[in-house]
Design brief:
Elements (H helix, E strand, L loop, with lengths): L2 E7 L6 H11 L7 E8 L5 H11 L3 E6 L5 H11 L4 E4 L9 H13 L3
Parallel strand pairs: 1-2, 1-4, 2-3
Length: 115
């Protein structure tokens, strides 16, 4: 696995579907393997239900969920623990960081990191 994207979510039922579709659009021409890990951080709305339905449609999307809100840092650590990618990128589930930044970060990794 080349890339893992971790997206923490708290009460994002109205955003998560469009967020996932935008990430998929941005990575449509990315020719390496990638995964998207959606972390439901104790949402009290239908975030888990919506995210689970999305993950059932795509092999490279998974959901982590727990019932009590533990905060962004905890959610990210849960995603990092599950991630299989060589590169890890986080993105906000409301896309307050434009999804295009994923490609920009990958390009920077490729330019600046020698493994």
């Amino acid at each position: 696995m080349e890339l893992s994207i971790i997206s923490p979510m708290y009460n994002e039922e109205n955003n998560i579907e469009s967020t996932v579709e935008e990430i998929r659009r941005v990575l449509a021409d990315y020719d390496k393997t990638w995964e998207l890990i959606l972390v439901n951080d104790g949402s009290t709305d239908r975030t888990l239900e919506v995210a689970t339905r999305i993950a059932e449609k795509y092999d490279n999307i998974s959901v982590i969920s727990y019932f009590v809100n533990r905060g962004r840092g905890y959610a990210l650590r849960q995603g990092f623990a599950r991630a299989q990618g060589r590169l890890l990128i986080t993105i906000e589930s409301d896309l307050s960081w434009n999804a295009e930044c994923i490609l920009e970060m990958i390009k920077k990794f490729d330019e600046d990191i020698t493994i």
